[in-house]
Amino acid sequence: MSTIVLLIITGLGLGALYFLVASGLSLIYGLMGVLNFAHGSFLTLGAFAGLEIARRMDGASWITLFASLVVGAVVGAVVAAATEFFLIRRLYNRHIEQVLVTVGLALATVALFDGIWGTDPTYVTGPAWFSETTEILGAKVPNDRFVLIIAAVLVLLGIVLFLKFTRFGLIIRAGVENRSMVTALGIDVRKAFTVVFAIGGAAAGLGGVLASHYFGYVSPQLGGSLLIFAFIVTVIGGLGSLAGAAIASALVAVLQQFANYYLGGTGDLTVVLLLAAVLLIRPTGLLGSKA
Questions:
Q1: pTM > 0.90
Q2: How far is it, in rounded angstroms, from Cα 126 to Cα 91?
Q3: Torsions phi, psi for 38 (to 5 deg)
Q4: Pairing, β 133-136 against β 139-142
Q5: 196: pLDDT strictly greater than 80
Q6: What pLDDT was estimated at residue 74?
Q7: Where are the transmembrane segments (predicted)?
Q8: CA–CA gap between residue 106 and residue 135 (Å, rounded)
Q9: Which of 258, 233, 255 lies closest to 243, judged by CA?
Q10: What is the DSSP letter of 187?
């Protein structure tokens, strides 16, 4: 029983990490129709920014962690907004060009990170509480998993509340439905779309800092490896569905943990088979809508 509890909770922690990456992908695609293959670069840059802040502060304290999270989120938001402003804004409704530009940006940034921080992983340390465990129903759960779950829940609630109850959220939703009408009212929809990218980048940057503590290191390939699972989660949940991404993140990660433990480390294969099954049975995903 304790093993099952441990696998479920650690799976939810990993799923929370997937969601922090997938939420930005799902939000950007759902509201703007952009598949951003450079999203992993926002995560990696946020992780390195958090690392640099930690190096300049008093080691593994809670204040250092909080500062790293804030800086990682801000850096991710700024870089994502700049990407939308300088590159994506001219390519709306031109999907092939979007893919080429964002894939090229992802490859270029990995090379850039290699040049600045080197190709070897850089190890990080967090507060001592992170390396401790909390016993739940006999299972000793690493404490950092709880931080990941709380962060994912707060991001989900924050995005939903922003879209439903703020002026920018109203403009974004209206602009998606009828951009010409909103523009005719004198509202600059382009700024709202830049905000969407910034929100997605902030979630990725936040996820990057937490991912560095989850894995214990930062490397230029960190974002790329997580982006693969983020895309899988986004497709299974339904392209553009934030709730679908949240459900799929938990489902994929828990299934991955159980398969790794009970099926000889076949978690990644099991996730790919799940993706194939969803595409065959329900191509729109769990909560996706038909075009």
A1: yes
A2: 40
A3: -90, 5
A4: antiparallel
A5: yes
A6: 97
A7: 6-27, 34-54, 60-87, 99-117, 146-172, 192-215, 227-254, 261-281
A8: 40
A9: 233
A10: -
Q: Which two tokens stand for residue 269?
A: 């294969």
pLDDT of 240 over the 90 cut: no
Buried b (16+ CB within 10 A) or exposed e, 184-200: eeebebeebbbbbbbbb
For the cut 70, the answer to whether the pLDDT of residue 268 exceeds it is yes
Q: How many residues does the structure list for the chain? A: 291
| Residue 99 identity | V
Encode pLDDT of 137-194 as tens digits: 889 999 999 999 999 999 999 998 988 888 878 877 776 666 677 777 677 777 888 8
Long-range contacts made by residues 8-11, C-beta under 8 angstroms, separation at least 24?
8/254, 8/257, 9/136, 9/139, 9/141, 9/145, 10/141, 10/142, 10/145, 10/257, 11/250, 11/253, 11/254, 11/255, 11/256, 11/257, 11/258
Mean pLDDT within 268-273: 94
